[in-house]
Amino acid sequence: MDFKRIQVLLILFFVVFDLYLAFLLSERGSFSQTANNAATPVNAVQEMKNRGVTIAPYINLNQDQEDLWVLKNTPSGELRANRQQLINQQVSIDPEGILTSHFDQPVELDISLGREGKSSQLTQEDFKWMQENILSDPSLFIHGDLYTNAWYLPQDKIIICRMVTPELPETDGQSPKLTIADSTAEIRILLDDDYNMISYIQTYQAPMVALEKTGPLISSYQAIETIENRIDTTLPNDAKIFSLSLSYYQSVATSNFNIYSPAWEVIYYRQENGQAQSILVDALKGKVVESKNIMQ
């Protein structure tokens, strides 16, 4: 083989080799771009909306990070100690201090709820009347005037009234009034078909004191992301979120004291069957601490 032929073959070899290297580099670049795209954070809230989940327009999702106080109180036997003040009702209290009552006769409510042509919502005027005429009556409820947050479950004809943390003097006015959202301080009033009270279940919490101020809490946006990114709490496609608010829940319970920590409470209902569900997200740790059917 002469020298010129060898030279041509070498040139062809190096041309082919260069083309092969160029191909490898292009493939590596494409893989790198794909990996980078896969690592891009997914907008969980947008994905939730894309699936069909709706969020009420009055709910403000943002990245604001507030700080609150951790609260403490002492377990109380207040309901057991004052059960004798309740009249015209059959009362029992279980070992955990939960009071259950059945009225001897239905108690009429002079409110718009259930009237023909009226909505199935408990209006502010309705609840104000209940506070002044029903909840504040010591023969009907024990410390009922302290349950100042309320909402209504039309599917089950239940009015839920919940205790709210007071402004604490040791916080110099920096402790907002927030709902105790974990069922440890509420009255669930069951109505009959005529929207009269027939029974209720009550839990109660003694006055609280502030322990310490927290660091920055997770934002409302992060709370929704936390829920969406967990398999066991991912909302169904027909869910509608109608409440999202900061609240408190019992994070520690002992025989001598209870600790209440800030949490985001998310309440939604399924448009398919109207079933309401609540989820509590610890606003300090950013983890789901409770997910339950409202009727539980």
Describe it for me?
The chain crosses the membrane at residues 6-25. It comes from Facklamia languida CCUG 37842. One of its GO terms (cellular component) is membrane. The chain has 296 residues and is α+β, with helices and mostly antiparallel strands. The chain has two domains: 40-70 and 210-293, YycH protein, domain 3-like (Lipocalin, Beta Barrel); 76-205, TATA-Binding Protein (2-Layer Sandwich), CATH 3.30.310. 23% of the residues lie in helices and 30% in strands. The protein contains five helices and 13 strands. Strands 1, 2, 9, 10, 11, 12 and 13 form a seven-stranded mixed sheet that branches. The protein has a six-stranded antiparallel sheet with strand order 3-4-8-7-6-5, with no helix packed on it. A hairpin with a 5-residue loop joins β11 (258-270) and β12 (276-282). The radius of gyration is 29 Å and the shape is elongated. Mean pLDDT is 86; it is low at 27-41.
